[in-house]
Amino acid sequence: MTFNPTDLLAIAPEIAVLSLAILVIMIEVLISRSEEVLQGITAIGLLAVMAVSIFVRSTSANVFSGMVANDDFTMYLKVLLTGIALLAILMSKDYLKGKNFRVGEYYTLILLATVGMMILASSTDLVTMFLGIETMSIALYALAGFRSECSKSNEAAMKYFLLGAFSTGFLLYGIALLYGATGGKTNFADIGIAITAFGGDNPAPAYLYAGIGLIMVGLLFKVAAVPFHFWSPDVYQGAPTPVTAFMSAGPKAAAIIVFLRLFGWALPDMSIAWQPILGVVAAVTMVTGNIIALSQQNIKRMLAYSSISHAGYLLLAVIAAGTAGIRSDAAAGMLFYLVAYYLMNMGAFTVAILVSRARLDGDYQINNYQGLAANHPWIAGAMALFMISLTGIPPTAGFFGKLYVFSAAVKAGFIPLVVIGVLASAISAFYYLRIVVYMYMRPETAESSKDLKPTPAWKTIMIVCSILIIYLGVMPGMMMKLADSSSQKISSPNRVVTLK
Amino acid sequence: MTVGLEWYLWLSALLFVIGVAGVLTRRNALIIFMSIELMLNAVNLAFVAFSRFIPNIDGQIFVFFVMAVAAAEVAVGLAIIVTIFKRKESVDIDQVNLMRW
Protein backbone atom coordinates (compact mmCIF):
# COMPACT_ATOMS: atom_id res chain seq x y z
CA MET A 1 0.00 0.00 0.00
CA THR A 2 1.66 3.19 -1.14
CA PHE A 3 0.60 6.78 -0.98
CA ASN A 4 0.70 8.67 -4.24
CA PRO A 5 0.63 12.48 -3.83
CA THR A 6 -1.49 12.90 -6.96
CA ASP A 7 -4.22 11.00 -5.12
CA LEU A 8 -4.87 14.27 -3.34
CA LEU A 9 -6.23 15.68 -6.60
CA ALA A 10 -9.09 13.21 -6.41
CA ILE A 11 -10.27 14.70 -3.14
CA ALA A 12 -9.36 18.29 -4.07
CA PRO A 13 -13.05 19.35 -3.98
CA GLU A 14 -13.46 18.02 -0.45
CA ILE A 15 -10.25 19.70 0.66
CA ALA A 16 -11.41 22.95 -0.93
CA VAL A 17 -14.82 22.89 0.81
CA LEU A 18 -13.20 22.05 4.13
CA SER A 19 -10.68 24.91 3.77
CA LEU A 20 -13.55 27.21 2.86
CA ALA A 21 -15.42 26.18 6.02
CA ILE A 22 -12.40 26.94 8.18
CA LEU A 23 -11.79 30.21 6.32
CA VAL A 24 -15.37 31.39 6.86
CA ILE A 25 -15.37 30.73 10.59
CA MET A 26 -11.95 32.36 11.00
CA ILE A 27 -13.09 35.43 9.08
CA GLU A 28 -16.11 35.72 11.33
CA VAL A 29 -13.98 35.51 14.45
CA LEU A 30 -11.06 37.67 13.36
CA ILE A 31 -12.06 40.06 10.59
CA SER A 32 -15.67 40.76 9.89
CA ARG A 33 -19.05 39.59 11.10
CA SER A 34 -20.81 41.22 8.18
CA GLU A 35 -23.40 38.92 6.62
CA GLU A 36 -22.61 40.14 3.10
CA VAL A 37 -18.90 39.41 3.38
CA LEU A 38 -19.38 35.93 4.81
CA GLN A 39 -22.06 35.02 2.35
CA GLY A 40 -20.13 36.36 -0.61
CA ILE A 41 -17.02 34.40 0.32
CA THR A 42 -19.01 31.20 0.82
CA ALA A 43 -20.86 31.55 -2.48
CA ILE A 44 -17.78 32.44 -4.53
CA GLY A 45 -15.85 29.69 -2.82
CA LEU A 46 -18.47 27.12 -3.72
CA LEU A 47 -18.45 28.23 -7.35
CA ALA A 48 -14.68 27.75 -7.31
CA VAL A 49 -15.16 24.28 -5.82
CA MET A 50 -17.49 23.40 -8.68
CA ALA A 51 -14.78 24.39 -11.15
CA VAL A 52 -12.23 22.41 -9.14
CA SER A 53 -14.45 19.31 -9.20
CA ILE A 54 -14.74 19.49 -12.97
CA PHE A 55 -11.22 20.44 -13.99
CA VAL A 56 -8.81 19.26 -11.33
CA ARG A 57 -8.77 15.52 -11.26
CA SER A 58 -6.38 12.77 -10.58
CA THR A 59 -5.83 10.49 -13.56
CA SER A 60 -5.28 7.46 -11.40
CA ALA A 61 -8.32 5.21 -11.07
CA ASN A 62 -7.23 3.66 -7.83
CA VAL A 63 -6.84 6.46 -5.32
CA PHE A 64 -6.09 5.99 -1.63
CA SER A 65 -5.97 2.21 -2.12
CA GLY A 66 -9.50 2.28 -3.48
CA MET A 67 -11.08 4.06 -0.53
CA VAL A 68 -12.66 6.79 -2.63
CA ALA A 69 -13.91 6.68 -6.20
CA ASN A 70 -12.37 8.90 -8.81
CA ASP A 71 -14.59 8.73 -11.89
CA ASP A 72 -17.09 10.80 -13.88
CA PHE A 73 -19.99 9.55 -11.78
CA THR A 74 -18.36 10.91 -8.65
CA MET A 75 -17.50 14.18 -10.35
CA TYR A 76 -21.10 14.66 -11.43
CA LEU A 77 -22.25 14.06 -7.86
CA LYS A 78 -19.73 16.47 -6.40
CA VAL A 79 -20.90 19.20 -8.75
CA LEU A 80 -24.52 18.42 -7.84
CA LEU A 81 -23.83 18.47 -4.08
CA THR A 82 -21.91 21.75 -4.36
CA GLY A 83 -24.86 23.15 -6.29
CA ILE A 84 -27.23 22.09 -3.51
CA ALA A 85 -25.06 23.85 -0.93
CA LEU A 86 -24.85 26.94 -3.14
CA LEU A 87 -28.63 27.28 -3.48
CA ALA A 88 -29.10 26.59 0.24
CA ILE A 89 -26.69 29.42 1.03
CA LEU A 90 -28.39 31.76 -1.41
CA MET A 91 -31.71 30.86 0.17
CA SER A 92 -30.38 31.54 3.66
CA LYS A 93 -29.11 35.01 2.81
CA ASP A 94 -32.22 37.01 3.59
CA TYR A 95 -33.70 34.37 5.88
CA LEU A 96 -30.92 34.91 8.39
CA LYS A 97 -31.34 38.68 8.42
CA GLY A 98 -32.65 40.03 11.71
CA LYS A 99 -32.67 36.61 13.36
CA ASN A 100 -29.64 37.22 15.55
CA PHE A 101 -27.82 34.20 14.15
CA ARG A 102 -24.08 33.80 14.09
CA VAL A 103 -23.99 33.58 10.30
CA GLY A 104 -20.37 32.44 10.11
CA GLU A 105 -21.15 29.34 12.16
CA TYR A 106 -24.21 28.68 10.06
CA TYR A 107 -22.32 28.77 6.76
CA THR A 108 -19.49 26.73 8.24
CA LEU A 109 -21.90 24.03 9.35
CA ILE A 110 -23.51 23.92 5.89
CA LEU A 111 -20.06 23.59 4.34
CA LEU A 112 -19.02 20.86 6.77
CA ALA A 113 -22.20 18.93 6.01
CA THR A 114 -21.33 19.33 2.33
CA VAL A 115 -17.86 17.86 2.91
CA GLY A 116 -19.51 14.87 4.58
CA MET A 117 -21.94 14.48 1.69
CA MET A 118 -19.12 14.60 -0.86
CA ILE A 119 -17.07 12.00 1.01
CA LEU A 120 -20.16 9.84 1.32
CA ALA A 121 -21.02 10.12 -2.37
CA SER A 122 -17.49 9.19 -3.41
CA SER A 123 -16.88 6.44 -0.86
CA THR A 124 -16.04 2.95 -2.06
CA ASP A 125 -15.01 1.63 1.31
CA LEU A 126 -16.91 1.03 4.53
CA VAL A 127 -14.53 3.31 6.46
CA THR A 128 -15.02 6.32 4.19
CA MET A 129 -18.76 5.59 4.04
CA PHE A 130 -19.00 5.69 7.83
CA LEU A 131 -16.88 8.83 8.12
CA GLY A 132 -18.88 10.57 5.40
CA ILE A 133 -22.22 9.73 7.01
CA GLU A 134 -21.09 10.95 10.40
CA THR A 135 -19.43 14.16 9.18
CA MET A 136 -22.64 14.97 7.36
CA SER A 137 -24.98 13.99 10.21
CA ILE A 138 -23.16 15.72 13.06
CA ALA A 139 -23.19 19.02 11.16
CA LEU A 140 -26.87 18.52 10.36
CA TYR A 141 -27.82 17.84 14.00
CA ALA A 142 -26.38 21.22 14.90
CA LEU A 143 -28.05 22.91 11.91
CA ALA A 144 -31.47 21.47 12.76
CA GLY A 145 -31.26 23.09 16.19
CA PHE A 146 -29.76 26.33 14.96
CA ARG A 147 -32.68 28.49 16.10
CA SER A 148 -31.79 27.83 19.70
CA GLU A 149 -34.45 30.29 20.96
CA CYS A 150 -37.21 28.28 19.26
CA SER A 151 -38.65 25.23 21.05
CA LYS A 152 -39.56 23.50 17.81
CA SER A 153 -36.03 23.81 16.50
CA ASN A 154 -34.66 22.39 19.77
CA GLU A 155 -37.08 19.53 19.54
CA ALA A 156 -36.14 18.85 15.93
CA ALA A 157 -32.44 18.74 16.85
CA MET A 158 -33.04 16.39 19.77
CA LYS A 159 -35.19 13.97 17.80
CA TYR A 160 -32.82 14.02 14.85
CA PHE A 161 -29.81 13.51 17.06
CA LEU A 162 -31.16 10.66 19.19
CA LEU A 163 -32.65 8.76 16.26
CA GLY A 164 -29.65 9.51 14.06
CA ALA A 165 -27.19 8.21 16.64
CA PHE A 166 -29.42 5.17 17.19
CA SER A 167 -29.38 4.37 13.48
CA THR A 168 -25.61 4.85 13.38
CA GLY A 169 -25.40 2.06 15.93
CA PHE A 170 -27.24 -0.29 13.57
CA LEU A 171 -25.17 0.78 10.59
CA LEU A 172 -21.92 0.20 12.48
CA TYR A 173 -22.94 -3.18 13.82
CA GLY A 174 -23.82 -4.14 10.26
CA ILE A 175 -20.42 -2.94 9.07
CA ALA A 176 -18.68 -4.95 11.81
CA LEU A 177 -20.53 -8.14 10.87
CA LEU A 178 -19.90 -7.63 7.16
CA TYR A 179 -16.23 -7.02 7.91
CA GLY A 180 -16.03 -10.24 9.88
CA ALA A 181 -18.05 -12.33 7.44
CA THR A 182 -15.94 -11.35 4.44
CA GLY A 183 -12.72 -12.15 6.25
CA GLY A 184 -11.57 -8.63 7.00
CA LYS A 185 -12.62 -6.72 3.88
CA THR A 186 -13.85 -3.14 4.02
CA ASN A 187 -13.47 -2.17 0.36
CA PHE A 188 -16.68 -2.50 -1.66
CA ALA A 189 -15.00 -4.30 -4.53
CA ASP A 190 -13.14 -6.67 -2.20
CA ILE A 191 -16.38 -7.41 -0.38
CA GLY A 192 -17.98 -8.28 -3.70
CA ILE A 193 -15.12 -10.67 -4.50
CA ALA A 194 -15.19 -12.22 -1.03
CA ILE A 195 -18.92 -12.87 -1.34
CA THR A 196 -18.61 -14.66 -4.69
CA ALA A 197 -16.38 -17.19 -2.91
CA PHE A 198 -19.30 -18.37 -0.76
CA GLY A 199 -21.55 -21.19 -1.87
CA GLY A 200 -21.50 -24.95 -2.09
CA ASP A 201 -19.48 -26.47 0.71
CA ASN A 202 -18.34 -23.02 1.82
CA PRO A 203 -21.63 -21.50 3.02
CA ALA A 204 -21.83 -17.85 4.02
CA PRO A 205 -21.97 -17.35 7.79
CA ALA A 206 -25.38 -16.37 9.12
CA TYR A 207 -24.05 -13.07 10.37
CA LEU A 208 -23.30 -12.00 6.80
CA TYR A 209 -27.05 -11.74 6.25
CA ALA A 210 -27.52 -10.01 9.60
CA GLY A 211 -24.80 -7.54 8.69
CA ILE A 212 -26.34 -6.67 5.33
CA GLY A 213 -29.74 -6.27 6.99
CA LEU A 214 -28.36 -3.94 9.67
CA ILE A 215 -26.49 -1.81 7.12
CA MET A 216 -29.73 -1.59 5.17
CA VAL A 217 -31.57 -0.36 8.27
CA GLY A 218 -28.93 2.30 8.91
CA LEU A 219 -29.01 3.58 5.33
CA LEU A 220 -32.81 3.45 5.05
CA PHE A 221 -32.94 5.68 8.11
CA LYS A 222 -30.68 8.22 6.42
CA VAL A 223 -32.82 8.35 3.28
CA ALA A 224 -35.99 8.46 5.47
CA ALA A 225 -37.73 5.41 4.02
CA VAL A 226 -40.79 3.93 5.75
CA PRO A 227 -40.70 2.46 8.45
CA PHE A 228 -37.62 4.48 9.44
CA HIS A 229 -39.09 7.86 8.55
CA PHE A 230 -40.54 9.02 11.88
CA TRP A 231 -37.87 11.61 12.48
CA SER A 232 -38.19 13.30 9.14
CA PRO A 233 -41.47 15.31 9.29
CA ASP A 234 -40.68 16.66 12.77
CA VAL A 235 -37.12 17.56 11.84
CA TYR A 236 -38.19 19.18 8.57
CA GLN A 237 -40.83 21.23 10.37
CA GLY A 238 -38.64 22.34 13.26
CA ALA A 239 -35.42 23.11 11.41
CA PRO A 240 -34.84 26.55 9.84
CA THR A 241 -36.44 26.38 6.37
CA PRO A 242 -33.28 26.78 4.24
CA VAL A 243 -31.75 23.97 6.29
CA THR A 244 -34.85 21.87 5.62
CA ALA A 245 -34.45 22.48 1.90
CA PHE A 246 -30.77 21.55 2.15
CA MET A 247 -31.55 18.40 4.17
CA SER A 248 -34.25 17.23 1.81
CA ALA A 249 -31.92 17.44 -1.19
CA GLY A 250 -28.30 16.88 -0.18
CA PRO A 251 -28.07 14.18 2.49
CA LYS A 252 -30.77 12.19 0.77
CA ALA A 253 -28.85 12.27 -2.51
CA ALA A 254 -25.56 11.33 -0.84
CA ALA A 255 -27.10 8.49 1.17
CA ILE A 256 -29.01 7.01 -1.75
CA ILE A 257 -25.85 7.09 -3.88
CA VAL A 258 -23.83 5.14 -1.34
CA PHE A 259 -26.79 2.76 -1.10
CA LEU A 260 -26.51 2.27 -4.86
CA ARG A 261 -22.76 1.79 -4.76
CA LEU A 262 -22.77 -0.62 -1.85
CA PHE A 263 -25.71 -2.78 -2.88
CA GLY A 264 -25.32 -2.52 -6.63
CA TRP A 265 -21.54 -2.87 -6.79
CA ALA A 266 -20.47 -4.78 -3.69
CA LEU A 267 -23.46 -7.00 -3.02
CA PRO A 268 -25.02 -7.89 -6.40
CA ASP A 269 -24.36 -11.56 -5.64
CA MET A 270 -26.63 -11.26 -2.63
CA SER A 271 -29.41 -9.58 -4.60
CA ILE A 272 -31.74 -12.57 -4.16
CA ALA A 273 -31.68 -11.75 -0.46
CA TRP A 274 -31.94 -7.96 -0.50
CA GLN A 275 -33.96 -7.12 -3.61
CA PRO A 276 -37.29 -8.47 -2.27
CA ILE A 277 -36.83 -6.75 1.09
CA LEU A 278 -35.95 -3.41 -0.49
CA GLY A 279 -38.83 -3.92 -2.92
CA VAL A 280 -41.32 -4.15 -0.06
CA VAL A 281 -39.72 -1.15 1.66
CA ALA A 282 -39.86 0.90 -1.55
CA ALA A 283 -43.52 0.02 -2.18
CA VAL A 284 -44.54 0.82 1.41
CA THR A 285 -42.51 4.04 1.32
CA MET A 286 -44.09 5.30 -1.90
CA VAL A 287 -47.64 4.51 -0.77
CA THR A 288 -47.39 5.58 2.89
CA GLY A 289 -45.48 8.79 2.17
CA ASN A 290 -48.04 9.94 -0.35
CA ILE A 291 -51.09 8.95 1.68
CA ILE A 292 -49.96 10.69 4.87
CA ALA A 293 -49.01 13.77 2.85
CA LEU A 294 -52.65 14.08 1.79
CA SER A 295 -53.75 15.09 5.27
CA GLN A 296 -51.00 17.62 6.01
CA GLN A 297 -51.94 21.25 6.63
CA ASN A 298 -48.39 22.55 7.02
CA ILE A 299 -46.41 22.91 3.81
CA LYS A 300 -43.10 21.92 5.40
CA ARG A 301 -44.61 18.70 6.74
CA MET A 302 -46.30 18.08 3.40
CA LEU A 303 -42.97 18.45 1.60
CA ALA A 304 -41.39 16.19 4.23
CA TYR A 305 -43.84 13.39 3.43
CA SER A 306 -43.39 14.12 -0.25
CA SER A 307 -39.64 13.70 0.16
CA ILE A 308 -40.27 10.37 1.93
CA SER A 309 -42.21 9.17 -1.09
CA HIS A 310 -39.47 10.41 -3.42
CA ALA A 311 -37.01 8.28 -1.44
CA GLY A 312 -39.27 5.37 -2.37
CA TYR A 313 -38.98 6.18 -6.09
CA LEU A 314 -35.21 6.45 -5.74
CA LEU A 315 -35.07 3.07 -4.01
CA LEU A 316 -36.50 1.58 -7.21
CA ALA A 317 -33.25 2.56 -8.91
CA VAL A 318 -31.22 0.90 -6.14
CA ILE A 319 -33.26 -2.28 -6.54
CA ALA A 320 -32.82 -2.23 -10.31
CA ALA A 321 -29.06 -1.80 -9.85
CA GLY A 322 -28.91 -5.22 -8.22
CA THR A 323 -29.78 -6.86 -11.53
CA ALA A 324 -26.80 -7.47 -13.80
CA GLY A 325 -26.84 -5.39 -16.97
CA ILE A 326 -29.25 -2.77 -15.64
CA ARG A 327 -26.76 -1.24 -13.25
CA SER A 328 -25.62 1.74 -15.30
CA ASP A 329 -29.17 2.44 -16.52
CA ALA A 330 -30.34 2.57 -12.94
CA ALA A 331 -27.44 4.79 -11.93
CA ALA A 332 -28.09 7.18 -14.83
CA GLY A 333 -31.80 7.35 -13.99
CA MET A 334 -30.96 8.11 -10.40
CA LEU A 335 -28.55 10.89 -11.37
CA PHE A 336 -31.18 12.55 -13.53
CA TYR A 337 -33.81 12.14 -10.83
CA LEU A 338 -31.56 13.66 -8.18
CA VAL A 339 -30.95 16.77 -10.28
CA ALA A 340 -34.67 17.17 -11.02
CA TYR A 341 -35.64 16.55 -7.41
CA TYR A 342 -33.09 19.04 -6.15
CA LEU A 343 -34.33 21.81 -8.46
CA MET A 344 -38.02 21.40 -7.73
CA ASN A 345 -37.61 20.95 -4.00
CA MET A 346 -35.32 23.95 -3.60
CA GLY A 347 -37.79 26.05 -5.59
CA ALA A 348 -40.78 24.90 -3.54
CA PHE A 349 -39.06 25.64 -0.25
CA THR A 350 -38.09 29.12 -1.47
CA VAL A 351 -41.73 29.92 -2.20
CA ALA A 352 -42.67 28.47 1.20
CA ILE A 353 -40.25 30.88 2.92
CA LEU A 354 -41.60 33.84 0.97
CA VAL A 355 -45.23 33.10 1.73
CA SER A 356 -44.68 32.43 5.41
CA ARG A 357 -42.62 35.59 5.89
CA ALA A 358 -45.45 37.79 4.70
CA ARG A 359 -47.60 36.60 7.57
CA LEU A 360 -47.40 38.08 11.02
CA ASP A 361 -47.21 34.72 12.77
CA GLY A 362 -44.84 33.41 10.10
CA ASP A 363 -46.48 30.00 9.94
CA TYR A 364 -46.44 27.54 7.08
CA GLN A 365 -50.13 26.65 6.74
CA ILE A 366 -51.31 25.63 3.29
CA ASN A 367 -54.29 28.01 3.66
CA ASN A 368 -51.84 30.87 3.18
CA TYR A 369 -51.69 30.05 -0.51
CA GLN A 370 -55.32 31.00 -1.12
CA GLY A 371 -55.65 33.42 -4.00
CA LEU A 372 -51.91 33.91 -4.30
CA ALA A 373 -52.10 34.03 -8.10
CA ALA A 374 -54.19 37.22 -8.13
CA ASN A 375 -51.48 39.41 -6.66
CA HIS A 376 -48.34 37.42 -7.36
CA PRO A 377 -48.79 35.77 -10.73
CA TRP A 378 -45.06 35.05 -11.16
CA ILE A 379 -44.50 33.50 -7.76
CA ALA A 380 -47.72 31.48 -8.06
CA GLY A 381 -46.67 30.38 -11.54
CA ALA A 382 -43.28 29.21 -10.30
CA MET A 383 -44.87 27.35 -7.38
CA ALA A 384 -47.35 25.70 -9.75
CA LEU A 385 -44.45 24.60 -11.93
CA PHE A 386 -42.60 23.10 -8.95
CA MET A 387 -45.72 21.26 -7.84
CA ILE A 388 -46.40 19.91 -11.34
CA SER A 389 -42.81 18.78 -11.59
CA LEU A 390 -42.96 17.09 -8.17
CA THR A 391 -46.08 15.24 -9.33
CA GLY A 392 -44.21 14.13 -12.43
CA ILE A 393 -46.37 15.62 -15.16
CA PRO A 394 -44.67 16.44 -18.51
CA PRO A 395 -43.10 18.68 -19.74
CA THR A 396 -41.11 19.05 -16.55
CA ALA A 397 -37.86 17.62 -15.21
CA GLY A 398 -39.78 15.59 -12.61
CA PHE A 399 -41.50 13.62 -15.34
CA PHE A 400 -38.30 12.51 -17.02
CA GLY A 401 -36.67 11.73 -13.68
CA LYS A 402 -39.47 9.32 -12.86
CA LEU A 403 -39.54 7.97 -16.40
CA TYR A 404 -35.86 7.02 -16.37
CA VAL A 405 -35.98 5.47 -12.91
CA PHE A 406 -39.17 3.54 -13.65
CA SER A 407 -37.91 2.31 -17.02
CA ALA A 408 -34.72 0.99 -15.40
CA ALA A 409 -36.90 -0.88 -12.89
CA VAL A 410 -39.06 -2.28 -15.72
CA LYS A 411 -35.95 -3.48 -17.57
CA ALA A 412 -34.85 -5.25 -14.40
CA GLY A 413 -38.25 -6.94 -14.29
CA PHE A 414 -39.84 -5.21 -11.31
CA ILE A 415 -43.11 -4.43 -13.05
CA PRO A 416 -45.43 -4.70 -10.00
CA LEU A 417 -43.21 -2.22 -8.14
CA VAL A 418 -43.37 0.22 -11.04
CA VAL A 419 -47.16 -0.12 -11.14
CA ILE A 420 -47.28 0.72 -7.43
CA GLY A 421 -44.94 3.66 -8.10
CA VAL A 422 -47.16 5.04 -10.85
CA LEU A 423 -50.29 4.66 -8.70
CA ALA A 424 -48.52 6.36 -5.80
CA SER A 425 -47.60 9.28 -8.09
CA ALA A 426 -51.25 9.53 -9.05
CA ILE A 427 -52.15 9.82 -5.36
CA SER A 428 -49.49 12.49 -4.96
CA ALA A 429 -51.26 14.64 -7.58
CA PHE A 430 -54.02 15.29 -5.02
CA TYR A 431 -51.87 17.11 -2.54
CA TYR A 432 -49.44 18.76 -4.95
CA LEU A 433 -52.20 20.11 -7.15
CA ARG A 434 -54.24 21.15 -4.12
CA ILE A 435 -51.74 23.98 -3.70
CA VAL A 436 -52.20 24.96 -7.34
CA VAL A 437 -55.98 24.94 -6.83
CA TYR A 438 -55.64 27.09 -3.70
CA MET A 439 -53.47 29.60 -5.54
CA TYR A 440 -55.59 29.92 -8.66
CA MET A 441 -59.16 29.05 -7.72
CA ARG A 442 -59.66 30.37 -4.22
CA PRO A 443 -60.54 34.02 -3.56
CA GLU A 444 -57.68 36.05 -2.21
CA THR A 445 -57.57 36.92 1.46
CA ALA A 446 -56.27 39.97 3.28
CA GLU A 447 -53.13 38.00 4.03
CA SER A 448 -52.45 36.79 0.52
CA SER A 449 -52.78 40.25 -1.00
CA LYS A 450 -49.82 41.43 1.09
CA ASP A 451 -46.62 42.15 -0.75
CA LEU A 452 -44.32 39.13 -0.48
CA LYS A 453 -41.19 41.25 -1.09
CA PRO A 454 -39.05 38.68 -2.88
CA THR A 455 -35.42 39.77 -2.60
CA PRO A 456 -33.00 39.36 -5.51
CA ALA A 457 -31.52 36.19 -4.00
CA TRP A 458 -34.90 34.47 -3.76
CA LYS A 459 -35.91 35.68 -7.20
CA THR A 460 -32.71 34.23 -8.61
CA ILE A 461 -33.40 30.82 -7.07
CA MET A 462 -36.97 30.73 -8.37
CA ILE A 463 -35.95 31.82 -11.85
CA VAL A 464 -32.99 29.44 -12.10
CA CYS A 465 -34.98 26.47 -10.79
CA SER A 466 -37.97 27.19 -13.06
CA ILE A 467 -35.86 27.61 -16.19
CA LEU A 468 -33.86 24.46 -15.54
CA ILE A 469 -36.99 22.43 -14.74
CA ILE A 470 -38.59 23.46 -18.03
CA TYR A 471 -35.34 23.01 -19.91
CA LEU A 472 -34.84 19.48 -18.57
CA GLY A 473 -38.50 18.76 -19.20
CA VAL A 474 -38.43 19.87 -22.83
CA MET A 475 -34.91 18.84 -23.77
CA PRO A 476 -33.77 16.13 -21.36
CA GLY A 477 -31.41 14.70 -23.99
CA MET A 478 -28.23 16.51 -23.08
CA MET A 479 -28.54 15.97 -19.35
CA MET A 480 -29.47 12.33 -19.89
CA LYS A 481 -26.45 11.83 -22.12
CA LEU A 482 -24.27 13.32 -19.39
CA ALA A 483 -25.84 11.10 -16.74
CA ASP A 484 -25.52 8.10 -19.03
CA SER A 485 -21.90 8.60 -19.96
CA SER A 486 -20.88 9.23 -16.37
CA SER A 487 -22.63 6.10 -15.12
CA GLN A 488 -21.03 3.92 -17.78
CA LYS A 489 -17.67 4.44 -16.21
CA ILE A 490 -18.32 3.86 -12.55
CA SER A 491 -15.08 2.43 -11.44
CA SER A 492 -14.97 -0.36 -8.95
CA PRO A 493 -11.35 -0.34 -7.99
CA ASN A 494 -9.97 -3.80 -7.50
CA ARG A 495 -6.97 -3.49 -5.34
CA VAL A 496 -4.66 -6.40 -5.00
CA VAL A 497 -5.18 -7.79 -1.55
CA THR A 498 -2.12 -9.01 0.20
CA LEU A 499 -2.78 -10.89 3.39
CA LYS A 500 -0.11 -10.70 5.99
CA MET B 1 -12.02 -25.13 26.76
CA THR B 2 -10.91 -22.16 24.69
CA VAL B 3 -12.73 -18.91 24.28
CA GLY B 4 -13.51 -18.76 20.55
CA LEU B 5 -14.83 -16.08 18.24
CA GLU B 6 -18.45 -17.06 18.93
CA TRP B 7 -18.13 -16.12 22.60
CA TYR B 8 -17.11 -12.60 21.74
CA LEU B 9 -19.80 -12.28 19.12
CA TRP B 10 -22.51 -13.43 21.51
CA LEU B 11 -21.27 -11.03 24.18
CA SER B 12 -21.23 -8.22 21.63
CA ALA B 13 -24.74 -9.13 20.45
CA LEU B 14 -25.96 -9.17 24.05
CA LEU B 15 -24.48 -5.73 24.75
CA PHE B 16 -26.00 -4.42 21.53
CA VAL B 17 -29.44 -5.74 22.43
CA ILE B 18 -29.20 -4.24 25.94
CA GLY B 19 -28.37 -0.93 24.28
CA VAL B 20 -31.30 -1.16 21.87
CA ALA B 21 -33.66 -2.11 24.70
CA GLY B 22 -32.42 0.87 26.70
CA VAL B 23 -33.07 3.28 23.82
CA LEU B 24 -36.55 1.92 23.28
CA THR B 25 -37.71 1.76 26.90
CA ARG B 26 -36.04 4.68 28.72
CA ARG B 27 -37.54 8.17 28.59
CA ASN B 28 -34.61 10.23 29.85
CA ALA B 29 -32.56 11.66 26.97
CA LEU B 30 -29.27 11.14 28.82
CA ILE B 31 -29.99 7.49 29.58
CA ILE B 32 -31.01 6.96 25.94
CA PHE B 33 -27.74 8.50 24.92
CA MET B 34 -25.81 6.21 27.27
CA SER B 35 -27.61 3.23 25.75
CA ILE B 36 -26.53 4.37 22.29
CA GLU B 37 -22.94 4.51 23.52
CA LEU B 38 -23.36 0.95 24.77
CA MET B 39 -24.44 -0.07 21.26
CA LEU B 40 -21.32 1.55 19.82
CA ASN B 41 -19.13 -0.29 22.31
CA ALA B 42 -20.77 -3.56 21.35
CA VAL B 43 -19.70 -2.76 17.80
CA ASN B 44 -16.16 -2.05 18.96
CA LEU B 45 -16.01 -5.39 20.72
CA ALA B 46 -17.17 -7.17 17.57
CA PHE B 47 -14.56 -5.33 15.50
CA VAL B 48 -11.72 -6.17 17.86
CA ALA B 49 -12.79 -9.80 18.11
CA PHE B 50 -12.95 -10.19 14.33
CA SER B 51 -9.67 -8.37 13.96
CA ARG B 52 -8.00 -10.77 16.39
CA PHE B 53 -9.41 -13.96 14.90
CA ILE B 54 -9.23 -13.27 11.14
CA PRO B 55 -6.43 -11.88 11.69
CA ASN B 56 -6.55 -8.48 10.03
CA ILE B 57 -5.64 -5.12 11.51
CA ASP B 58 -8.33 -3.02 9.74
CA GLY B 59 -10.94 -3.81 12.39
CA GLN B 60 -8.85 -2.28 15.14
CA ILE B 61 -8.28 0.83 13.03
CA PHE B 62 -12.01 1.06 12.51
CA VAL B 63 -12.48 1.06 16.29
CA PHE B 64 -10.40 4.24 16.51
CA PHE B 65 -12.64 5.89 13.95
CA VAL B 66 -15.72 4.79 15.87
CA MET B 67 -14.37 6.21 19.10
CA ALA B 68 -13.38 9.53 17.51
CA VAL B 69 -16.75 9.93 15.83
CA ALA B 70 -18.57 8.95 19.04
CA ALA B 71 -16.68 11.68 20.88
CA ALA B 72 -17.71 14.27 18.30
CA GLU B 73 -21.27 13.05 18.54
CA VAL B 74 -21.21 13.40 22.34
CA ALA B 75 -20.09 17.01 22.03
CA VAL B 76 -22.93 17.97 19.71
CA GLY B 77 -25.50 15.76 21.41
CA LEU B 78 -24.87 17.04 24.92
CA ALA B 79 -25.05 20.62 23.64
CA ILE B 80 -28.48 19.86 22.18
CA ILE B 81 -29.64 18.20 25.41
CA VAL B 82 -28.39 21.16 27.48
CA THR B 83 -30.34 23.58 25.24
CA ILE B 84 -33.49 21.56 25.81
CA PHE B 85 -32.84 21.44 29.55
CA LYS B 86 -32.38 25.21 29.77
CA ARG B 87 -35.80 25.68 28.23
CA LYS B 88 -37.79 22.89 29.87
CA GLU B 89 -35.90 22.13 33.08
CA SER B 90 -36.22 18.48 32.07
CA VAL B 91 -34.69 16.04 29.62
CA ASP B 92 -37.70 13.72 29.53
CA ILE B 93 -38.36 12.98 25.87
CA ASP B 94 -42.09 12.60 26.50
CA GLN B 95 -42.21 16.31 27.22
CA VAL B 96 -40.58 17.16 23.91
CA ASN B 97 -43.72 16.76 21.86
CA LEU B 98 -44.70 19.99 20.11
CA MET B 99 -44.88 18.30 16.73
CA ARG B 100 -47.01 15.28 15.96
CA TRP B 101 -48.10 13.82 12.63
Notes on the protein architecture:
The complex is a heterodimer of chains A (500) and B (101). Chain A has helices at 7-10, 12-30, 35-55, 72-95, 103-122, 126-144, 151-181, 188-196, 206-222, 231-238, 241-266, 271-294, 299-321, 327-357, 372-375, 377-391, 397-411, 415-441, 456-474, 477-488. Chain A has 500 residues and is an all-alpha fold. Chain A has a domain at 267-494. Chain A starts with 6 loop residues before the first helix and ends in a 12-residue tail after the last helix. Chain B is mainly α. Chain B has a single domain (5-88), classed as Helix Hairpins, CATH 1.10.287.3510. The mean pLDDT of chain B is 91. The A-B interface holds A 126-127, 130-131, 134, 138, 141-142, 145, 148, 151-152, 154-159, 161-162, 165-166, 168-169, 172-173, 175-177, 179-180, 183-184, 186, 207, 233-234, 237-238, 292, 499-500 and B 9, 12, 16, 19-20, 23, 29, 32-33, 36, 39-40, 42-43, 46-47, 49-51, 54-59, 61-62, 65-66, 69, 72-73, 76-77, 79-81, 83-84, 87, 93, 96-99, 101.
Indicate the radius of gyration of chain A in whole angstroms: 22 Å
CATH class of chain B: Mainly Alpha
Domain module tally of chain B:
1
Going by helix content, strand content and strand pairing, the class of chain A is mainly alpha
From N to C, what is the helix and strand string of chain A? HHHHHHHHHHHHHHHHHHHH
Question: What Rg of chain B, in angstroms, do the CA atoms define?
Answer: 17 Å
Overall outline of chain B: elongated
Helicity of chain A, in percent?
over 70%
In short:
The complex is a heterodimer of chains A (500) and B (101). With 500 residues, chain A is mainly alpha-helical.
Break the fold down into its secondary structure elements and pairings.
The complex is a heterodimer of chains A (500) and B (101).
Chain A: H1 7-10, H2 12-30, H3 35-55, H4 72-95, H5 103-122, H6 126-144, H7 151-181, H8 188-196, H9 206-222, H10 231-238, H11 241-266, H12 271-294, H13 299-321, H14 327-357, H15 372-375, H16 377-391, H17 397-411, H18 415-441, H19 456-474, H20 477-488
Helix pairs in contact in A: 2-3, 2-5, 3-4, 3-5, 4-5, 4-11, 4-14, 4-20, 5-6, 5-11, 6-7, 6-11, 7-9, 7-10, 8-11, 10-11, 10-13, 11-13, 11-14, 12-13, 12-18, 13-14, 13-17, 13-18, 14-16, 14-17, 14-19, 14-20, 16-18, 16-19, 17-18, 17-19
Chain B: H1 5-25, H2 29-53, H3 58-88
Helix pairs in contact in B: 1-2, 2-3
